[in-house]
Design goal:
single chain; alpha+beta; Growth Hormone, Chain: A; 3 domains; six-stranded mixed sheet; two-stranded antiparallel sheet; 14 helices; about 60% helix; about 5% strand; globular; membrane; cell membrane; transmembrane; OATP; Kazal-like domain-containing protein
């Protein structure tokens, strides 16, 4: 009897565990939470890869253009594979999502095998150590090749996993529980965009000081999501709100057939083009934001009704895009400050000063470190360029002494006119956050609209095709446009690196972003025209049937 009781309890425990893992009910908020964690970790992982490449560039073991080249290459890769990845596995989405989540966890743990970074010693002062400064490319070692292999396969996996989670995850949710698709899609967008906006400045800075801690954060976060994934997606057609859903038909769902239906949908195509333009503007401004500033958690609520109206969605996308256009103009024109006198610095050039020529300054990786001669209130672009030979810290303030350009005067860190510029920088940051919020709202409307205007069999495929459009327009076309602007507006180029942009740089970047958004507005209006035409054709068909 005792043995039977123990066996019965064991069976009950086993059945309870199996009911958790092989559940029949589907709660889209659970799936959203799992995808949210994975997408945040993937976005942070991509930024970490960028930082790791930058480490090898600073060490002189990779050419300075490597990071930009990798951005373009992986964007082309995403554009090619996204339609295939978003289509393949639509009949076994549960296994597909679990498999990619497992791969992300394994990838994070393999980073423990990555060799430590190499750092070159640098000096900011006018002394013999400064002559050893070198930020140029000196050659690639076997250690760097090994690091680059790990980074490369990690980037490939991150691209594939991101496309799978976004396309199949949101498509599954919209197929069986479409009522709150707008909310789910919006939250997933936030999980994708905010880590990219804040990732480099805030979320991945520990990569430079404690790589083990960063790896553990990514690995543990991804593992938690992996454990939850089998509980979030049923094995078969789920029960939603007490109603047993039917599996979607698998007829006419071939790759070419699905892509053909998407490409022949004018509303979907124009919206994807508009999304690419908005994405390119946001990426270009965000990628070069630090250069713009060097010169000079939003609360989300679903703005779309549960009963999704396509016409209202198009209008909302157009209105929000207009607001983005206005804010690009404002953020370019309004934040400005008087930087005072900066010795040797012209509007479009920097000339070395005679008083520090004897130093024969060689630049550091971050050579632009303004200092202020307080007696004359003249700023210099760096301690070495001011001829400073010594420095010390007094009450938390860095003080430079024995400066040939400042005679016997006191020289402090920061530019002389930075007090007003700091408040303008806060204004810039505030306006930039508003821009990001507007972009999320635009992407949300356009993304959900894509899901609603295509055939029910093509929901994941349309997300994959949209990923291809965005990758090409943002990280290839857009990135190359902004890179060209950056190269042609460099004011201080030394050591194969641009240390400071010209005064025209922020205006050209802002104007380009505004133009891209304006083109997106025109494209959205075109979508509205196609939608009107489609409704007219349907009405005529109904009249004919009557």
């Amino acid at each position: 009897m005792e043995l039977q009781r123990m066996l019965s309890q064991t069976r009950r425990v086993r059945n309870r565990i199996l009911s958790w893992v092989n559940g029949t009910k589907f709660d889209p908020t659970k799936l959203r939470g799992v995808l949210l964690g994975l997408l945040v970790n993937i976005a942070i992982g991509e930024v970490c890869c960028y930082r790791l490449v930058q480490q090898d560039i600073r060490a002189g073991e990779l050419p300075s253009f490597t990071a930009d080249l990798m951005i373009v290459i992986f964007a082309v890769f995403e554009a090619v594979v996204a339609p295939l990845v978003s289509w393949w596995g639509f009949t076994k989405r549960r296994k597909l999502l679990i498999g990619y989540a497992t791969a992300v966890v394994v990838c994070c743990f393999t980073w423990f095998l990555m060799p430590a970074k190499f750092e070159r010693e640098e000096s900011e002062l006018c002394n013999p150590a400064n002559s050893k400064n070198d930020i140029g490319f000196i050659g690639t070692s076997a250690r760097t090749v090994y690091r680059l292999l790990i980074i490369t396969y990690s980037c490939i996996l991150f691209v594939l996993a991101r496309v799978v989670f976004l396309s199949h995850g949101i498509a599954y949710s919209d197929e069986y529980a479409p009522d709150r698709t707008s909310m789910h899609f919006g939250v997933l967008l936030i999980s994708r965009i905010f880590p990219l906006v804040l990732g480099y400045k805030v979320l991945t800075s520990v990569v430079e000081s404690n790589m083990v801690f960063q790896i553990l954060m990514l690995a543990i976060g991804s593992f938690v999501s992996l454990v939850q994934m089998p509980l979030a997606i049923p094995n078969k057609a789920p029960i939603v709100n007490g109603v047993q859903m039917e599996a979607l038909p698998i007829t006419d769902r071939g790759l070419c057939t699905s892509i053909g239906r998407v490409l022949n949908n004018p509303i979907a195509m124009t919206q994807m083009f508009a999304m690419g333009l908005v994405s390119a503007s946001l990426w270009g401004y965000g990628y070069y934001e630090l250069d713009i500033v060097k010169y000079a958690g939003a609360v989300f609520s679903a703005p779309i009704l549960m009963e999704f109206c396509k016409l209202k969605a198009i209008k909302q996308a157009a209105i929000t895009s207009v607001l983005m256009f206005v804010f690009y103009i404002l953020i370019t024109v309004i934040p400005s400050c008087d930087t005072g006198i900066v010795s040797g610095l012209g509007k479009s050039y920097y000339g070395h000063l005679e008083c520090s020529l004897a130093c024969n300054c060689k630049p550091q990786w971050e050579e632009f470190k303004p200092i202020c001669a307080v007696d004359t209130m003249v700023s210099y672009v760096s301690p070495c360029q001011a001829g400073c030979r010594e420095s010390r810290e007094i009450n938390g303030i860095q003080v430079y002494t024995n400066c040939t350009c400042a005679a016997a005067g006191r020289v402090l860190e920061r530019a002389c006119g930075d007090a007003s510029c700091r408040s303008e920088q806060l204004l810039h940051g505030f306006m930039y956050n508003i821009l990001v919020t507007f972009a999320i709202l635009v992407f949300q409307v356009q993304g959900v609209l894509l899901l609603k205007v295509v055939d029910v069999r093509d929901k994941s495929v349309v997300m994959g095709v949209a990923s291809s459009f965005i990758a090409i327009m943002t990280f290839v076309v857009g990135h190359l446009i902004f890179y060209t602007i950056q190269v042609n507006t460099c004011r201080w180029f030394e050591g194969n690196k641009c240390h400071l942009q010209s005064e025209a740089f922020p205006y050209l970047v802002g104007a380009t972003c505004a133009f891209l958004v304006l083109t997106s507005i025109i494209t959205t209006v075109t979508s509205w025209h196609f939608f009107k035409m489609s409704n007219k054709d349907k009405n005529e068909d109904n009249v004919t049937r009557l």
